[in-house]
Amino acid sequence: MTIKKTIVKAKVPVKTDKAITEQIAKVALMPCTNAAAVVAEYSKVFGEQDVQALMEQLRPHMISVNNGDLDHCEAMLVGQAHALQSIFMNLSRRAVSQEYLKQYEMYLRLALKAQNQSRMTLETLAKIKNPPVVFAKQANINQGSGNQQVNNGTPAPAPHTEKTINQQNELLEVNNGSETVDSRATGTAISKDKAMATVG
To answer: Which residue from 65, 82, 93, 135 has the fewest beta carbons nearer than 10 Å?
Structure first.
Protein backbone atom coordinates (compact mmCIF):
# COMPACT_ATOMS: atom_id res chain seq x y z
CA MET A 1 0.00 0.00 0.00
CA THR A 2 1.46 3.35 -1.07
CA ILE A 3 0.97 6.49 0.94
CA LYS A 4 1.11 9.75 -0.95
CA LYS A 5 2.72 12.58 0.96
CA THR A 6 1.26 16.00 0.34
CA ILE A 7 3.72 18.85 0.83
CA VAL A 8 2.17 22.25 1.45
CA LYS A 9 4.43 25.16 0.60
CA ALA A 10 3.89 28.36 2.51
CA LYS A 11 3.65 31.42 0.30
CA VAL A 12 6.26 34.01 1.28
CA PRO A 13 5.40 37.52 0.10
CA VAL A 14 8.03 38.68 -2.34
CA LYS A 15 8.65 42.37 -2.66
CA THR A 16 8.31 43.63 -6.18
CA ASP A 17 10.85 45.90 -7.79
CA LYS A 18 8.52 48.88 -7.29
CA ALA A 19 8.15 48.20 -3.57
CA ILE A 20 11.92 47.90 -3.15
CA THR A 21 12.49 51.13 -5.09
CA GLU A 22 9.93 52.99 -2.95
CA GLN A 23 11.52 51.67 0.24
CA ILE A 24 14.99 52.80 -0.89
CA ALA A 25 13.61 56.23 -1.82
CA LYS A 26 11.93 56.54 1.59
CA VAL A 27 15.16 55.70 3.42
CA ALA A 28 17.22 58.01 1.17
CA LEU A 29 14.97 60.97 2.01
CA MET A 30 15.08 60.48 5.78
CA PRO A 31 16.98 63.37 7.44
CA CYS A 32 18.96 61.04 9.69
CA THR A 33 20.01 58.96 6.67
CA ASN A 34 21.22 61.99 4.73
CA ALA A 35 23.15 63.32 7.71
CA ALA A 36 24.65 59.89 8.46
CA ALA A 37 25.84 59.45 4.87
CA VAL A 38 27.65 62.81 4.89
CA VAL A 39 29.09 62.30 8.38
CA ALA A 40 30.40 58.89 7.34
CA GLU A 41 32.35 60.43 4.46
CA TYR A 42 33.78 63.34 6.41
CA SER A 43 34.54 61.47 9.65
CA LYS A 44 37.01 58.99 8.22
CA VAL A 45 39.66 60.60 10.38
CA PHE A 46 38.14 58.45 13.14
CA GLY A 47 38.18 55.35 10.93
CA GLU A 48 35.55 53.77 8.70
CA GLN A 49 32.04 54.70 9.82
CA ASP A 50 28.91 52.56 9.80
CA VAL A 51 26.01 54.54 8.33
CA GLN A 52 23.44 52.46 10.21
CA ALA A 53 25.17 53.13 13.54
CA LEU A 54 25.34 56.84 12.77
CA MET A 55 21.62 56.86 11.98
CA GLU A 56 20.88 55.27 15.36
CA GLN A 57 22.94 57.95 17.10
CA LEU A 58 21.36 60.82 15.16
CA ARG A 59 17.73 59.76 15.60
CA PRO A 60 17.49 60.59 19.38
CA HIS A 61 18.94 64.07 18.76
CA MET A 62 16.30 64.78 16.11
CA ILE A 63 13.54 63.55 18.43
CA SER A 64 14.88 65.85 21.17
CA VAL A 65 14.72 68.85 18.85
CA ASN A 66 11.14 67.97 17.90
CA ASN A 67 10.32 67.94 21.62
CA GLY A 68 11.86 71.39 22.10
CA ASP A 69 15.16 70.32 23.68
CA LEU A 70 17.95 72.28 21.93
CA ASP A 71 20.84 71.41 24.26
CA HIS A 72 22.63 69.29 21.67
CA CYS A 73 22.14 71.95 18.97
CA GLU A 74 23.60 74.62 21.25
CA ALA A 75 26.63 72.45 22.02
CA MET A 76 27.07 71.77 18.30
CA LEU A 77 27.05 75.51 17.51
CA VAL A 78 29.69 76.17 20.16
CA GLY A 79 31.84 73.42 18.64
CA GLN A 80 31.40 74.84 15.15
CA ALA A 81 32.36 78.33 16.31
CA HIS A 82 35.58 76.96 17.82
CA ALA A 83 36.35 74.94 14.67
CA LEU A 84 35.81 77.98 12.45
CA GLN A 85 38.02 80.04 14.75
CA SER A 86 40.78 77.43 14.29
CA ILE A 87 40.39 77.64 10.51
CA PHE A 88 40.62 81.44 10.74
CA MET A 89 43.82 81.27 12.77
CA ASN A 90 45.41 78.70 10.44
CA LEU A 91 44.63 80.63 7.27
CA SER A 92 45.72 83.94 8.83
CA ARG A 93 49.11 82.48 9.72
CA ARG A 94 49.47 81.07 6.21
CA ALA A 95 48.64 84.47 4.70
CA VAL A 96 51.43 86.20 6.65
CA SER A 97 54.03 83.71 5.40
CA GLN A 98 53.17 84.26 1.70
CA GLU A 99 55.69 86.03 -0.51
CA TYR A 100 53.38 87.08 -3.35
CA LEU A 101 50.36 89.35 -3.08
CA LYS A 102 47.99 87.00 -4.92
CA GLN A 103 48.53 84.10 -2.50
CA TYR A 104 48.48 86.48 0.48
CA GLU A 105 45.13 87.91 -0.63
CA MET A 106 43.65 84.45 -1.25
CA TYR A 107 44.58 83.09 2.18
CA LEU A 108 43.49 86.26 3.96
CA ARG A 109 40.13 86.31 2.15
CA LEU A 110 39.47 82.70 3.16
CA ALA A 111 40.53 83.47 6.71
CA LEU A 112 38.10 86.37 6.98
CA LYS A 113 35.30 84.20 5.56
CA ALA A 114 35.92 81.63 8.29
CA GLN A 115 35.97 84.42 10.89
CA ASN A 116 32.64 85.74 9.59
CA GLN A 117 31.11 82.26 9.71
CA SER A 118 32.28 81.89 13.30
CA ARG A 119 30.65 85.21 14.19
CA MET A 120 27.37 84.23 12.49
CA THR A 121 27.40 80.89 14.33
CA LEU A 122 27.71 82.67 17.66
CA GLU A 123 24.93 85.08 16.66
CA THR A 124 22.66 82.12 15.91
CA LEU A 125 23.52 80.63 19.30
CA ALA A 126 22.70 83.93 21.01
CA LYS A 127 19.31 84.08 19.25
CA ILE A 128 18.50 80.54 20.38
CA LYS A 129 19.46 81.34 23.98
CA ASN A 130 17.75 84.76 23.99
CA PRO A 131 15.06 84.92 21.30
CA PRO A 132 14.06 88.45 20.28
CA VAL A 133 10.86 89.84 21.81
CA VAL A 134 8.31 91.18 19.32
CA PHE A 135 6.03 93.98 20.49
CA ALA A 136 2.87 94.19 18.38
CA LYS A 137 0.86 97.39 18.49
CA GLN A 138 -2.68 96.12 18.16
CA ALA A 139 -5.91 97.01 19.91
CA ASN A 140 -9.06 94.93 19.59
CA ILE A 141 -12.23 96.90 20.28
CA ASN A 142 -15.57 95.11 20.62
CA GLN A 143 -18.53 97.40 21.33
CA GLY A 144 -21.00 94.59 22.08
CA SER A 145 -22.69 94.79 18.69
CA GLY A 146 -20.86 91.78 17.33
CA ASN A 147 -18.61 93.93 15.15
CA GLN A 148 -14.98 93.96 16.17
CA GLN A 149 -12.58 96.73 15.22
CA VAL A 150 -8.86 96.00 15.02
CA ASN A 151 -6.38 98.89 15.13
CA ASN A 152 -2.82 97.90 14.22
CA GLY A 153 -1.25 101.18 15.21
CA THR A 154 -1.00 102.57 11.67
CA PRO A 155 -2.53 106.04 11.57
CA ALA A 156 -5.15 106.45 8.88
CA PRO A 157 -4.92 109.46 6.57
CA ALA A 158 -7.14 112.42 7.36
CA PRO A 159 -10.50 111.87 5.64
CA HIS A 160 -11.12 115.46 4.52
CA THR A 161 -7.72 116.92 3.80
CA GLU A 162 -8.15 120.00 1.70
CA LYS A 163 -5.44 121.33 -0.54
CA THR A 164 -4.06 124.63 0.67
CA ILE A 165 -4.09 127.14 -2.14
CA ASN A 166 -1.72 130.04 -2.02
CA GLN A 167 -3.71 132.82 -3.70
CA GLN A 168 -0.61 134.93 -4.08
CA ASN A 169 0.95 132.29 -6.33
CA GLU A 170 -2.28 131.93 -8.29
CA LEU A 171 -2.05 135.62 -9.26
CA LEU A 172 1.38 135.25 -10.80
CA GLU A 173 1.86 134.46 -14.43
CA VAL A 174 5.03 133.95 -16.44
CA ASN A 175 5.70 136.15 -19.48
CA ASN A 176 8.93 135.48 -21.34
CA GLY A 177 10.59 134.04 -18.25
CA SER A 178 9.61 136.90 -15.92
CA GLU A 179 6.84 136.73 -13.35
CA THR A 180 4.18 139.44 -13.41
CA VAL A 181 0.94 139.97 -11.58
CA ASP A 182 -2.07 138.64 -13.47
CA SER A 183 -4.29 141.63 -14.14
CA ARG A 184 -7.25 139.40 -14.94
CA ALA A 185 -7.39 138.16 -11.36
CA THR A 186 -8.70 141.47 -9.98
CA GLY A 187 -12.22 141.48 -8.59
CA THR A 188 -14.59 143.35 -6.35
CA ALA A 189 -13.81 143.73 -2.69
CA ILE A 190 -15.71 141.56 -0.27
CA SER A 191 -18.12 143.63 1.81
CA LYS A 192 -18.56 143.05 5.51
CA ASP A 193 -21.40 140.90 6.74
CA LYS A 194 -24.16 143.21 8.01
CA ALA A 195 -24.88 140.96 10.94
CA MET A 196 -21.23 140.99 11.95
CA ALA A 197 -20.92 144.73 11.44
CA THR A 198 -23.20 145.44 14.39
CA VAL A 199 -20.99 143.44 16.72
CA GLY A 200 -18.39 145.63 18.19
So the answer is: 135
